[in-house]
Amino acid sequence: MGLSDRPRVTYGRDVACIATVERIALAPGQLEHLTLEARLPTLPQAFDGLRVGFVTDLHYSLRAPLHRHLVTWVAERDVDLWLVGGDLYESAQGEGRLAEVCEGLSAPLGRYVVPGNNDNRVFRASGGPSHAFERLGLMPLVNVGLRLEREGGSIWLAGTDDPSRARDDLDSALRGSREGEFVLLLSHAPDVIFRAAARALPLVLCGHTHGGQVRLPGIGALWAGTRTRGCGRKMAAGAVGAGETAMWVSRGTGDSLLPFRFLCPAEVTTVILRSGGPR
Ligand SMILES: [Fe+2]
Q1: CA nearest 260: which of 84, 121, 65?
Q2: What are phi and psi of 270, to 5 degrees?
Q3: Which architecture characterizes domain 3-275 according to CATH?
Q4: What does the alpha-carbon distance between residue 169 and residue 111 come to, in Å, rounded to a whole number?
Q5: N or C: which end of the chain has fewer CB atoms below 10 A?
Q6: How far apart are the CA of 152 and the centre of ligand 1, in A?
Q7: What pLDDT score was predicted for residue 220?
């Protein structure tokens, strides 16, 4: 699919499969827990009600924003699957405290991570971040996928390398999936949506943008660092749709470049998958 025949992009609550979004302030003005329900016509019945915990963009170094809140929140979650959207590291010095967070990521279907641009930068000289992720007890999905099975049904969980640096390879991540199998795609940055839409993948979870970090009333994000021209500010946070693909862009929990956020609280997310069409 070339630039000229990209599917129409929709932004916000009119993305059909995102049925409800509930917000609870965990640390008022600083951290929100969003619970969203995604109604997915092709989701196998066995996965109806699946709860996915999603955290992304922690950006830990010696500095670890909202660390205590995160440790408590993940430890208290009751989810079926944990997904981590990358940019855990701002520097290798973050590892000790990242381990404290990841210790709480317990779920029967496992805990998976994809690399972000900062993870790839921090571990460039040591062959990439996968070993560091494994030390944290997370299974890295770097342009690979695997089958998750539950109550006699299955879905394909695919993860890519970082789309913000064009390192994603969806063909590779989908290798081994069955024709027509439901695919849940985890990827660091929203740029992947056009490739996902070209393959009619139903749901993508990503981060990278931090919601723009600085948002103004009535305007939204002033800037967001996506690779895709003209889409950055609109893809900075929340629901985005293209063709048959719905994507949730988390604001993540950390920051980079600017050491603060303005009207853009950090986000942790629970995604509840529902089998069936939009309401
Ligand atoms: Fe990033």
Answers
A1: 65
A2: -115, 125
A3: 4-Layer Sandwich (3.60)
A4: 21
A5: C
A6: 36
A7: 86
Tell me which residue of 24, 31, 23 sits closest to 265, measured CA to CA: 31
Ion ligand 1, residue ranges at CB < 5 A: 87, 116-117, 208
The tens digit of pLDDT for each residue in 12-41 reads 878 989 989 999 999 999 999 999 999 999
Residue for token pair 């390192």: 167
Ranked by mean pLDDT, which of 3-12, 119-128, 256-265 comes out on top?
A: 119-128
Cα(180) to ligand 1 centroid in Å equals: 31
Q: Average pLDDT, stretch 259-264?
A: 90
Among 163, 229, 171, residue whose Cα is nearest residue 191: 163
15: tokens are 């993305």
How far is it, in rounded angstroms, from Cα 191 to Cα 201? 14
From the CA of 94, how far away is ligand 1's center (Å)? 16
| Distance of CA 50 from the midpoint of ligand 1 (Å) | 27
With beta carbons less than 8 A apart as the criterion, state whether 173 and 159 touch.
Answer: yes
Is residue 119 within 8 Å of 207, Cβ to Cβ? Answer: no
Q: Which residues contact 119 (CB under 8 A, 6 or more apart)?
A: 86, 87, 88, 89, 129, 132, 133, 162
